[in-house]
Amino acid sequence: MSSVIRAEGITRRFGHVTAVDGVDLDIEEGNIFGFLGPNGSGKTTLIRMLCGLLRPSAGHANVLGFDTVRDSERIKRSIGYMSQQFSLYTDLTVMENLKFYSRVYGIRRQKMRDRIEEVIEIVGIENYRKRLAAELSGGWKQRLALACSLVHRPKVMFLDEPTAGIDPVARRDLWNLLFDLAGRGVTFFVTTHYMDEAERCSHVGYIYFSKLMVCGTPKELKQLPEITPEHLVRLEVRCPRPAGAMRKLNTFAYVQDATIFGDALHVLADEGCESHMSDDLSQAGFESPRIRSIPPTLEDVFVTLTRNKDGQRDV
Amino acid sequence: MFRGLTSIVYKETIHVIRDPKTLFLMLLVPGIQLTVFGYAIDLDVKNIPTAVYNLDGRPESRDLLDAFTNAGYFNIVKTATSDKDLYAAIVRGDAQVGIKIPPDYTDLLVLGRNAPVQVLIDGSNSTVAMQALNVTNAIGLRESLNIVNKTLDRRGGLPIQVEPRVLFNPDMKTVNFMVPGLVGLVMQLVTMLLTALAVVREKENGTLEQLMVTPVSRFGLMIGKIVPFFVIGALETVMVLSIMRFLFDVPIAGSVALLAAFSLAFLFTTLGLGLLISTYAANQIQAIQLAFLVVLPSVLLSGFVFPQESMPYPIWAIGQLIPLTYFIRILRGIIIRGAGFYDLWQNGAVLGGMGLAVLSLSALRFRKTLS
Predict the structure, then answer these.
(1) Is B165 exposed, middle or buried (0-12, 13-18, 19+ CB in 10 A)?
(2) Cα nearest neighbour of A85 on chain B
(3) Model confidence over B326-336: pLDDT tens digits?
(4) Which of A47, A144, B22, B179 has the smallest number of CB atoms closer than 10 Å to its CB?
(5) CATH class held by domain A3-222
(6) Are residues B275 and B356 in the same domain?
(7) What is the ipTM of this complex?
(8) Which chain A residue's Cα is nearest to B371?
(9) Mean pLDDT, to the nearest integer, of B302-315?
(10) pTM for the complete prediction?
(11) What is the fold of A232-295?
């Protein structure tokens, strides 16, 4: 496997603000790299630097072996980019948008028809050819945007929150599309806020206050020692009135943290405390709680990392 | 260098066709502007409302008043009955000029003495006042001359006969002077604003960022954006020149082909200015404000209304930086004086140079907005 995106100490400052601080990355071919972090943590700035839109203040990055500053024009020919905002021409039809981007990428007239038909089939936008982009729903707009950025067969795709504001079905369809394309060897760099999307990625990175805090496969991240420290266990607790139970649990000395997760509670507690907990909860009026040990979710990973970091910041 | 040019032209053309409202406005508004302004801007003052206080009343005094009204500049709207009345007519705005003839006017003339005729002029509108003053002096001089000649029994006018001959615009019609300038002003406003808005709209929609990650080059993008507006600007030029020629009846004395060639140079500059504005403006409102920052000095300092020769040096110098200054010289040169290429090429060269400078500056700024 060869490395497709590689960054070393890449940093971007805007005046006194450091938007991205010394990020190292190494993403291999065919990966779907999920990039997570709170709003304003530097996700978009990093993408813009990798696409050659912004110059890094320090450090450097390669995409497909080309330097993002010196060879940005070379990179542009082999990458696709979908920005956060829907950025196609709404007064052009689906076909016209596709034709426009084909021309922009200098695809020859003979090939153009084939390429356009190819991406139309990939994203399944066949029935909307003559529709103005303005008249498409959110999900279809995203598909069109994806189609436009695929028309030149890019090797790397940068997607900045591609699923923000589209419905769950469209969201799932889009992800299936990404898997399909990744199977054909396209490398994806995707930012998202959704944990379920992060779980689907082959690799994830988490950026917090401009710094890349952690990076790896979801499985690796869940096994990080700082996520479930020694002598602690992650438990799922099911009982009536979980909200009340959560408040109660947080008062117990052997409970480090309790949060609601759907209709259950996720608890980080001392090893071997399950029987105490069961008794204590029953006594407090939360009868017959079911307690079982569970692996951490990615959300647990990021919440824990964020809390640890905040703890350090407070010191 | 121009990578992606044709793709941008393709897209921009669709934008223009899809939006007939804008297309309509682009072509119609300049026509309306030119027509309205062309009729409104007329510095020839006629029929100035005049009040008269004639204390003499004999034929000689009526001859004098006839001399005033016959020239077509004064229109007697009121006969005053006292000094106060005459004055009040001007204060109220009923009259802009008041003429008072003293009771002994005829007697003084007969005796060969100076007969004082008082003329009050409302100075609140300086254009009218200036005209009234000049015409009053001229009429006074002419009537005096007639009387002197009669008494001396001498033929001919003054000992020295100055024979001024106004070349090129013999009737001194303001329309012939103003409308060519107006053509330039209208062309500039529309082309500059449309270009600026077209680029800034892409900024607002985020489509510009999308284009930046494609292999489209800066020049390809910039020139591609300009080309459709260049075509529209050319059509518009033909239209406003036709309005000038056929509605305002301003003949084009020189070569139409030369005028067309210089007009294209001017369009090139104004479109470049539009691009430059778009590199500074973050949104369409800012673009409009910046465009007016260019338009206002163009109206005031280009020699369109006020002669540049009488401006103080720093103001004059600013005027020399405005493209419209040179285009107005070209317009008036070709249309009114029938000037040829060798009379005007320097102005054309300055316009072309400014166009290139503005375009290069935009290209530099364009890169900056990205990184």
Answers:
(1) exposed
(2) B206
(3) 999 999 899 98
(4) B22
(5) alpha beta
(6) yes
(7) 0.80
(8) A54
(9) 85
(10) 0.77
(11) Alpha-Beta Plaits (3.30.70)
